[in-house]
Amino acid sequence: MTADDLTRIAVTGSAVRTAEEPLLAAGRGPELMRAAAWALAEHAAALLRERGPVAGATVAALVGPGNNGGDALFALAFLRRRGVAAVAVPVRRDDDGAPRWHAEGWAALQAAGGRRADAVPPEAALVVDGVLGTGFTGEYELPAAARALPADALVLACDVPSGVDADTGEVRGEALRADATVTFGALKSGLVLGEGAARAGTVHVVDIGLGPHLPTSPAVRLGVMDEAAARAAHPAPAAEAHKYTRGVVAVVAGSERYPGAAVLASAGALHTGAGMVHHAGPQTTRDLVLTAHPEALVSAKGPEPSRADAWVAGPGLDTEHDARRRWAGVLAALEERPEAALLADASALALLTAAELRSLRAAGTPVVLTPHAGEWSRLRERVPADGADAADPLAALRAWTAEHGATVLLKGPRTLVVAPDGEAWVVTGGGPDLAMGGTGDVLSGAIGAVLAADVARRSRARRAGEDPGPAPTARLAAAAAWLHAQAGADQARAGRITTATLPTALGARVARLWWPDDAEPEAVQ
Ligand SMILES: NC(=O)C1=CN([C@@H]2O[C@H](COP(=O)(O)OP(=O)(O)OC[C@H]3O[C@@H](n4cnc5c(N)ncnc54)[C@H](OP(=O)(O)O)[C@@H]3O)[C@@H](O)[C@H]2O)[C@@H](O)CC1
Ligand SMILES: Nc1ncnc2c1ncn2[C@@H]1O[C@H](COP(=O)(O)OP(=O)(O)O)[C@@H](O)[C@H]1O
What transmembrane ranges does the database entry give (predicted)? Predict the structure, then answer.
């Protein structure tokens, strides 16, 4: 992995431990620990400096029995040499009452003039959580000393907050909430997933030279979507683009009962830069879509199958007879042009069958499903897969997508996207500003537009005699979700908090992605 990758691709704590093995066997453990401790001390000093002088400040560390505690002890020793009052608080003791901790680390701290105490002193400005790192197993019992921290002390976690599973982000027991975490070797997936992400605070990744030893298999890596990755997945249209090269999105959404979904999904596609959006639905939704978006095409059946690059099916479709007919129409259109992509959301997730998934997979159609947590659990009941009931959401997603051949984007505060080959992405950055009815409909249209642009690119490549390879559906969907999350945050910052204005904020984000030097998001109403 490159230094850039280290912050953009998370791997499990277990994978980092495996990567360390050859280095430890070669006797490089102490060197790695020094590098980790030095970086931890640097970040501690930077945090102290935000509040005042480093020299003279008090830093305490909660020190556990393993190497995580060793890192903390060496970091304290470095800080002591910079004039910090360094205090080590052991949290495990042997039967004779002696602290159970890293002997060389303690020796280094003593040599530097640090001391040990039974509790964190009230004057401590910063507390390092160095109890447990990647060696954490079972349940974490918060040490008594961690329960009585000075109210305004900052908490800096060493590698991972103690009690957080570095693989999954699960918190087993009580864990401190860190202001920042300094993590070594690679970004750990437990710091970007689940509750672990909420406990970690700002995460700093420190390169200690593990890059060449880290695993490359998609099955243990987790991409963190960001602007650069989103731009690579959804690049600006070429100068010679025309509406069809930018991608045609067919939107089969909305019903008499839920008419607004057709408008929101169409808006999501239009504002994500689709060349053309064609809504298929009853008269009511056709009228609404046309009134809101005069540039859209509308009809009862949708575009000619040969014309559509992506089908967005399901938002507000209801599940009555008419919905089944419309869903069957989408599948029939895809049979005619299997290289077009399918985005299935909401009602379509309740209609989709295992047999349909098998046919789509056999035909090579790129498929993305976008359930929220409730829809995901219903989908797994109706269309089960071995291992898909795992408690670890990423493991469950990997098991299900591998068996059924569709990419799943699991919506939530941290959206996870997993492809059948195990490629996985996490989308962070959005906030509760998106927790409103209809934002998912906008997302489905946005993903449709990104998929359509990719399908159009791929078709052109094929016509030119090139092999464009398989569609990278997980990163395409994650890119759209990232744009959508950023748009939610952007519009909240600008004082707008309704779903109706989200598509406009999305458009401003896409413009910034495509033309970063020109776009002025503040100017967009
Ligand atoms: N290796 C390297 O090259 C580098 C590693 N680095 C650092 O090492 C860290 C990993 O260190 P590690 O392997 O010593 O494990 P660590 O997280 O300190 O904990 C293990 C100890 O905790 C205990 N324990 C476990 N669960 C428990 C529980 N629930 N409740 C209570 N106790 C529990 C368990 O004791 P046991 O219960 O087995 O007696 C065991 O002794 C890593 O996160 C990074 O900070 C860096 O220096 C860079 C180079
Ligand atoms: N607390 C939250 N933080 C960040 N994003 C959220 C949060 N709650 C919901 N979202 C996002 O809002 C959208 C909601 O989609 P969905 O549940 O399908 O709503 P609807 O069906 O009403 O459109 C998803 O993109 C989801 O990731």
Answer: none
Confidence of residue 103 (pLDDT cuts 50, 70, 90): very high
Specify the higher pLDDT residue, 319 or 44.
Answer: 44
- Would you list the DSSP string of 257-287? SSTHHHHHHHHHHHTTT-SEEEEE--HHHHH
User: Which atom of ligand 2 sits closest to the CA of residue 437?
Assistant: 22
| Residue 348 pLDDT greater than 80, yes or no | yes
In order of their start, the domains of the chain are 1-216 (3.40.50.10260), 226-512 (3.40.1190.20)
Give me the sign of the Cα torsion angle 496, 263, 317, 315. Answer: negative
DSSP lists the bridge partners of residue 205 as 183
Query: Whose structure tokens read 């020299």?
Result: 55
Ligand 1 pocket residues where CB is under 6 Å: 20, 24, 29, 32-33, 36, 64-69, 71, 132-140, 158-159, 184, 208
Computed over every residue of the chain, the mean pLDDT equals 95
User: Residue 159 and residue 121: Cα distance in Å, rounded?
Assistant: 23
Encoded amino acid at 407, one letter:
T
Ligand nearest to the CA of 133: 1
Which of 266, 411, 442 should be mutated for ligand 2, with most atoms under 8 A from CB? 411
**Which ligand is located closest to the Cα atom of residue 172?**
1
Distance 413 CA to ligand 2 centre (A): 7
User: Given this model, what pLDDT does residue 144 score?
Assistant: 96
Q: Write the ipTM.
A: 0.90
